[in-house]
Amino acid sequence: MDLDRFDRQLLNLVQEDAGQTAERLAEQVALSPSAIQRRLRRLHEQGVIEREVAVVDPKAVGRPTLFIVALQVERERPDLMSQLRRWLSAQEHVQQAFYVTGEADFILVVTAPDAESYDALMGRLMSENANVKRFTTNVAMSVVKRGLSIPITMGDGA
User: Fold this and answer.
1) Where does the signal peptide begin and end (predicted)?
2) Has residue 157 been placed in a domain?
3) What is the maximum alpha-carbon separation in the chain?
């Protein structure tokens, strides 16, 4: 899809705060509110904007602990990998899961209220997925940066 300067500006702005009104966005992009709404609708329809979410403070909702998990599998058979992907996708504690290169096969970002909840999740992972060989866990001591924004240049390298 071809994104013009206005689309790129809009994408940067809504990644920062998707709750802005069309009027507020129009002030920043120099388009009319109706043009903003049309562009946003098109960006949604074409899959450029996948979804809009609220960023919640984990501590405020009783999930203060963040675990970064490196997961290794025994075999990379397509059926076994597909089963594991489905299992990971269904777990509410798993915020993000990446299939990666290197020593680990998957990197997971897991949130939990405490170590006991995390331990129970990983116990289920091992018992319900015989193809999982091992995992290692890092506990996040603090969050330095958290986000999903994709930097979008204006097309002139800026």
Assistant:
1) none
2) no
3) 56
